[in-house]
Amino acid sequence: MFSKIIPAFFICFFLVSCGDNSSTPDYDSSLPVNNIPPPAQIMYKVVSVYPHDSGAFTQGLEYYGNKLYESTGEYNRSSLRLVDLKTGKVEKSYLLPDKSIFGEGITIFNNKIYQLTWQSNKVYVYPLDNFTRPVDSLKWNREGWGATNDGKNIIISDGSSKLFFVQPDEKSKNFKVNKILTVADNRGEVDSLNELELINGSIYANRWYTNEIIKIDTSTGYVTGAMNLTGLLHQYDPTAKFEDGAVLNGIAYDSATKKMYITGKDWPRLFEIQLQ
Fold this sequence. Notes:
Layout: H1 8-14, E1 40-41, E2 44-51, E3 58-64, E4 67-72, E5 79-83, E6 90-95, E7 103-109, E8 112-117, E9 122-127, E10 136-139, E11 147-149, E12 154-157, E13 162-169, E14 174-182, E15 184-185, E16 188-189, E17 193-199, E18 202-207, E19 212-217, E20 223-228, H2 232-236, E21 248-254, E22 259-264, E23 269-275
Parallel strand pairs: 1-20
Antiparallel strand pairs: 2-23, 3-4, 4-5, 5-6, 7-8, 8-9, 9-10, 11-12, 12-13, 13-14, 15-16, 17-18, 18-19, 19-20, 21-22, 22-23
């Protein structure tokens, strides 16, 4: 999501490296507010580490057709990109010409790329095979943060605890909302839902300005699992430097090979991880 609005002392917290992923996210099962079980800890291992453009303020990451697509944010430099996974080099890029637009998450749905914008109430639509420019734009009357799809609906986050299951209507230039899912864990509603990825029927979501990815049941909205990625980047790149907002964000999944890719805003590395 957005950047440069968080006090600097939060950055210091983010840079603390634990060296592994054995730490448990801060879920206190002794303080339940409902009947939802506390999220299980999701373990993972790093399989490969690839270069990533440290100037890419990653908002959306999508692996589709053996290609890696990326949406970047920030005013004056928001873009849609095709990226070589192994080298990190940008093979193709479209820079949003409107300097007032802040790019956000993407999803590939019905052979089209849908790119959210933060506060402009626009979703840009590109042909998958040639995204030299948007061919359409649809209205979205909330903030745009992350996006994924289940083959029937585009699923959008807006920074709250809600996930919106919608269908694009290109005739009305709008979206039809089919379902609104409230995300919650044993402590209550879980907000700051950002970049999304549907994996094996569950939604994995970055939480803005945290070191965790949560796993969400799409039928109940319950958080069933959480991955703690504190210190991941510094474990593999101790010299990496952060500015405000350069946090964990970006989840892509290759359903054919079962590979999961994650990165962060302005991170110099992209990680292939395997869930345990």
